[in-house]
Amino acid sequence: MTPPVDESIGRDEFDTPAEVDAVYRTQRRIAIGYFAVFLGGILMIPVATLVTDWWSGAQLSGWATGFVIVGAGLYLFFFALGVGAATLANGVERRMLGTPGDDESPEPDA
Predict the structure, then answer these.
(1) DSSP structure class, residue 3
(2) Which string of b and e fits 32-70 if b means at least 16 CB within 10 Å?
(3) Residue in 103, 107, 104 with CA at minimum distance from that of residue 15
(4) pLDDT tens for each residue of 71-110
(5) Could you tell me the pTM of the whole model?
(6) Which residue has the higher pLDDT, 89 or 14?
(7) Cβ atoms of 37 and 29 closer than 8 Å
């Protein structure tokens, strides 16, 4: 036995398939861009180890500089990257698709 269908579902839908597809393509570009930044940040760790002497030679509170940066700085990098990606993605979706209340307020004539 199937549950009854709620007739009110879908009445607030106002986005066309073309709009949703455009948002999908934009969100995909954002995700690829942020993945590139993530990958660059991760790859900078071995590059810094090979290129710079201070990365493993200097000490911060008795710990190697590279260890401190990887142990704490990488998590800050991940947090900032996640907040930035989520904020941008939500803003793009809100601007491109809007909300049901956006259609009710007409834009002023220029």
Answers:
(1) P
(2) eebeeeeeeeeeeeeebeeeeeebeeeeeeeebbbeebb
(3) 103
(4) 899 999 999 999 999 999 999 988 988 766 665 555 566 5
(5) 0.69
(6) 89
(7) no
